[in-house]
From TrEMBL:
The keyword Transmembrane applies. Pfam families: DUF4153 (PF13687). This is DUF4153 domain-containing protein. InterPro entries: DUF4153.
Length: 607
């Protein structure tokens, strides 16, 4: 084994080291050119059908080439890269066509657009080609289309560790360069610090260093194998902990019910994360199916293989509830795709756990076929076959047509800024509508959305749709009190979400509203405390211009104290003068806050 590795090192180093470094340097130069064109608002950054494919190709294709050299024959490299090129072009061109990747930029007082691949396309393309490249390398290694599971296992973990340590190497290199710049600054030499600020230096260095690290880790397979073994052993001993926690969660559901789970509004993503964690840890213990595994890990792995199914089914139910209530959106379509893959894994691993005489041996078969399923799902999501934007827009329009969503509740902003070309087409249709009871409202709102410039996309994406009526989301205290009319009629959608509670911007948000005269000026203020999420209270006051804004806050430690909130609801409180006065320093008022020592019993002892 050791002699073979020495031969591999000599052969690979002699034939491909220079080529890999050259590819990395060329990749860096081309990426810098693309970055410079975006910075200067020049071609190709202003041409979407050039910029998006070029950027996508430059991020992924050189890495595939670097990894292929020395492991595939020249003809195989050419065929594989051409196939990868075709897939990347389809993904990136469709990304442009759907119209969701332009970025507004003001340059020379003229509104211009620069273009880049959407984050989803880049991330999922990387996942797609990590899996595909593993299948290709393993198949070439064994000389057959479907390789043995051991070949897939070795190749996948080697690639994962190569990528991880290559990224670490780049980070370590720049840490050293940064330290060197600080050393030179001690003697008043700024050249290295100024060099590290230049993108023309940083981008090529990053890519060249990454390719160098990929080569070094490639020619030392024994080191990579040792790191992999250590990593998997450590991860496998986390499996019993994960099993205990997930088992406890599943067993608690009959007693707690699912209501609290749905109120989080992110139950599906958490459940998917739990299922993914169990999958990774099971495979860390299983490895290639030939590792010697301790009995506690075998029991834990078999139990985890059973647990994946209920966790996944709860996630499916959670997503189903959201879709039934609000219809499909881009995020929910992607979540559904992930749940489809998770369900395949869950069913396969449940089957594997029932084979008591093979130590989860069927897991290897499930993993291989699941890889092909993931490739198929990703290919569908990022082509017109199952475009999440198209499905989301069609779903929202269908709900509107069937009366499940009222015109006043309809999210026109989703169509405009998240629906791409499909959303724009739907808005044009609504704009022309002249028949029906809500035709005037739909036409007016659609026209207003179409009139917005693309430069408003990012500002609008930080806002949520306003509820039908703020009053519907508020429970007013003390009982019988009335909220100021100007508070209820204010257009809260114009305020950024991070400055207000959900009850002012989302239909599912709920708050307690306390009408108090907090500053003693004779005019009421409104204290809002969210019901669904423990958080700080916010005091809103009406300004001289008639607009309500946040003027004070209550601490999280107080709002998380249930007895305190209950007393507040009953009106059992008084307004008192602060213990410490404020300091006036140069016209600026500085508040002195009393020291608070947290005592777990302090909340329960409130009289």
């Amino acid at each position: 084994m050791e002699q073979n590795e020495i031969a591999l090192e000599a052969q690979v180093s002699r034939k491909v080291m220079g080529a890999r470094l050259a590819i990395g340097l060329l990749q860096g130069l081309l990426l810098y050119w693309l970055y410079a064109s975006a910075r200067d608002v020049a071609w190709p950054a202003t041409a979407p059908y050039a910029m998006v494919p070029l950027t996508t190709l430059m991020l992924i294709l050189p890495v595939l080439l670097i990894s292929s050299l020395g492991h595939l024959k020249p003809r195989q490299v050419a065929v594989w890269l051409l196939a990868a090129l075709a897939v990347l072009l389809v993904f990136s061109l469709h990304d442009v066509w759907r119209g969701l990747n332009d970025q507004p930029l003001l340059s020379n007082w003229e509104h211009k657009q620069i273009y880049s691949p959407s984050v989803l396309v880049v991330v999922f393309s990387a996942v797609f080609f990590f899996i595909a490249h593993t299948l290709v390398l393993a198949g070439a290694q064994e000389g057959r289309r479907i390789a043995g599971y051991n070949a897939y296992f070795e190749t996948a973990w080697k690639l994962a560790i190569q990528l991880l340590f290559s990224a670490f190497f780049v980070g370590a290199l720049f840490f050293v360069l940064l330290m060197g710049s600080q050393l030179f600054l001690l003697v008043k030499l700024k050249f290295l610090q100024e060099l590290l600020r230049e993108s023309w230096f940083n981008v090529p260095v990053i890519c060249t260093a990454f390719s160098c690290a990929m080569h070094v880790t490639d020619v030392r397979p024994s080191i990579v194998r040792g790191i992999r073994t250590l990593l998997l052993v450590l991860m496998s001993w986390i499996l019993p902990v994960a099993v205990v926690l997930v088992t406890g969660f599943v067993c608690s559901l009959p007693f707690t019910g699912l209501t609290a789970l749905w109120e989080t509004r992110h139950a599906t993503s958490v459940l998917l994360g739990a299922a993914a964690l169990l999958l990774v840890l099971i495979n860390a213990a299983f490895q290639n199916g030939e590792a010697i595994v301790a009995l506690p890990l075998r029991v834990s792995a078999r139990t985890a293989a059973i647990l994946i199914l209920p966790v996944t089914l709860i996630g499916v139910y959670a997503l189903g509830l959201r879709v039934a209530q609000y219809g499909w959106t881009t995020d929910r379509v992607i979540a559904a795709a992930c749940l489809l893959v998770a369900t395949f894994y869950a069913a396969g691993y449940l089957w594997a756990s029932s084979q008591y005489d093979t130590w989860l041996k069927p897991v290897s078969t499930v993993n291989v076929w699941a890889s092909f399923l993931v490739l198929a799902v990703l290919a569908a999501l990022f082509t017109p076959l199952a475009d999440p934007a198209r499905i989301g827009v069609n779903s929202q329009m269908a709900r509107l047509e069937k009366g499940k969503t009222k015109a006043a509740d309809f999210d026109f902003r989703y169509l405009r800024f998240e629906g791409g070309r499909y959303g724009l087409a739907a808005l044009e249709e609504l704009k022309k509508r002249s028949a029906g009871p809500d035709a005037a409202v739909l036409s007016r709102e659609a026209a207003a959305m179409l009139a917005l410039d693309d430069s408003d996309r990012w500002k609008q994406s930080r806002r949520a749709t306003a509820p039908v009526s703020v009053a519907d989301n508020l429970t007013v205290w003390p009982a019988g009190a009335q909220l100021p009319a100007s508070f209820l009629t204010q257009k809260w959608e114009t305020m950024q979400d991070n400055l207000k509670p959900d009850c002012l911007s989302k239909r599912e948000g709920k708050c307690d509203a306390f009408v108090i005269d907090a500053d003693g000026d004779g005019k009421p203020e409104v204290l809002l405390i969210e019901k669904l999420h423990a958080g700080g209270g916010q005091v809103f006051a009406e300004g001289s211009d008639g607009a309500w804004t946040v003027v004070a806050n209550m601490a999280y430690r107080d709002m998380s104290c249930k007895p305190l909130v209950d007393k507040l609801r009953k009106g059992e409180f008084t307004l008192v003068t602060p213990r410490f006065k404020e300091l006036d320093i140069g016209g600026r008022r500085v508040e002195l806050t009393a020291t608070f020592q947290h005592d777990a019993a302090a909340c329960d002892n409130i009289k």
